[in-house]
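Problem 12. The chain below contains 155 residues. Write out its predicted structure in token notation.
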Amino acid sequence: MKKFFLILLVATSLASCLNNTDKEKDIAANDTSFKMPPPAPEESIDSSKLTTVLWIDSAKDMGTVTEGELVKISYRFRNTGNKPLVIEKVQPACGCTVAEYPKEPIAPGKEGEIKAEFNSQGREGVQKKTVTVFANIPEKIYTLAFDVTVNKPKA
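Solution.
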């Protein structure tokens, strides 16, 4: 008799679990509270305003520093197109790096510079960081990079 009640209890529990799973699936299938937004439409590019850039420096090895040091990085470029180069924004990949860029258009044939500063505090080991440039170039964005090895301070 004990076995019968034990089997009945297990069967009832299992059936209720399976029943809840089906209900949860039904609820999830009918839930309209969250839907992925449709993809943003591709911005049309006015090719008459595009220019080209020669990156004189686009990848840098900054060597070895002691944790806590600020590392200054400079990326030079030349507008090789026939339209002014407009840098819309520059975006470092993480909060440990800040960047400055020319806000004024760079005339054809002229050079410019993007400056970045990496804070090595709390960043021990080999660091590979990027800075993304958004500009009126055919590829829309360009990624600059730097590597630096951060050693712990000597005690």
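Discussion. The domain at 53-151 is CATH 2.60.40.10 (Immunoglobulin-like). Students who got a different answer should revisit the alignment rule from Section 12.3.
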